[in-house]
Amino acid sequence: MRITVCLTDSKPEPWVQGLQAALPEAEVSAWAPGQQPADHAVVWAPPQAFIDAQPGLKTLFNIGAGVDALMQLSLPPGLAVVRLDDAGMSVQMAEYACHAVIRHFRELDVYEAEARAGRWTYRKPRERADFPVGILGLGVLGERVARAVAHFEFPVMGWSRTRKEIEGVRTFAGEARLGDFLVNTRVLVNLLPLTDATRGILNKATLSALKPGGYLINIARGGHLVEDDLIPLLDKGQLAGATLDVFETEPLPAAHPFWHHPKISITPHGSARTLRSESIAQIAGKIRAMARGEAVAGVVDFERGY
Ligand code: NAP
Ligand code: GLV
């Protein structure tokens, strides 16, 4: 069995070594043009030339949860795409989302500014009932985030394509219920995959539908947000602020107005990092399971796009 590794923006060598150690029976190498075709590939945003040079490929293992970059490629029929299924990401997303929700709710930025100015001041306590948190997407990451936020006793809602039942979470399903979900939400957390159905879903209309003082936490993909719509909503007070981890263009260009907007907090697409050893263990486990003819989790449905 041959496994090739093709990663845009990161070094393949540690992945090659880790996969080789986990699967000693396989021949693992970093992709180079002209290389012998492989059975499985471990990839992040590979170029079309890579796919075209791999006629016998059975599986593309994506080293992330989101497969939007792969869905832009022309993939041969019969090639399976398998995304990372948690592999240590959901706990990171739960940390990040809870931190952003609590930082906003408890006005921790205001306290920090006051402390820096040497002032000992108090803010009036706020009611968590006034800060319902809505999670767009209740998949591997969204469900964990919803449960984690509910632990802090905020009212929590979630929206997904198909109906879910999650203890402590009021759930809404399908496009017809998006409006109800939004009008009941004040702090909106986005954990949808980027697909034709979800591109641009965070826009003037949907963000204006939130409860007064709405707050956006986008930790899925930059393409979900219509970036030009955000600053006018913040400037006229329709939204109280935004925490953004993902952007239409990454790295965020130096001249982008989001960098210096006082109501926007930025992180560099790191809300849930790929953890190499957990990911290698998961991918190796799936390769072995597939060799035994067993079904594996995280196989992408091309019709849905995730
Ligand atoms: P997932 O398990 O596939 O879950 C996706 C959720 O979105 C599901 O609940 C799905 O509904 C829902 N959904 C999809 N299309 C929808 C639509 N048109 N209408 C309503 N709901 C829809 O994905 P995941 O593992 O939770 O990851 C979510 C996304 O997070 C990834 O695709 C990726 O873009 C992003 N991500 C970002 C980072 C980062 O560092 N910023 C890290 C990892 C992942 P059903 O359950 O009904 O199918
Ligand atoms: C990161 O953005 C991922 O999709 O895993």
The average pLDDT value, as a whole number, equals 97
Q: How many beta-strand segments? A: 12
Give the termini distance in whole angstroms.
Answer: 27 Å
The main β sheet shows up as: 7 strands, parallel
Strand content: 15-25%
3D structure, described in words:
The chain is α/β, with parallel strands linked by helices and 306 residues long. It folds into two domains: 2-87 and 274-291, Rossmann fold (3-Layer(aba) Sandwich); 89-266, Rossmann fold. It is built from ten helices and twelve strands. A seven-stranded parallel sheet has the order 8-7-6-9-10-11-12. A five-stranded parallel sheet has the order 2-1-3-4-5, covered by helices on one side. β4, α3 and β5 form a beta-alpha-beta unit. The radius of gyration is 21 Å and the shape is elongated. The structure holds NADP nicotinamide-adenine-dinucleotide phosphate (NAP) and glyoxylic acid. Glyoxylic acid binds next to loops. Residues 64-66, 89, 137-142, 159-162, 191-195, 197-198, 219-221, 245-246, 269-272, 306 line the site of NADP nicotinamide-adenine-dinucleotide phosphate.
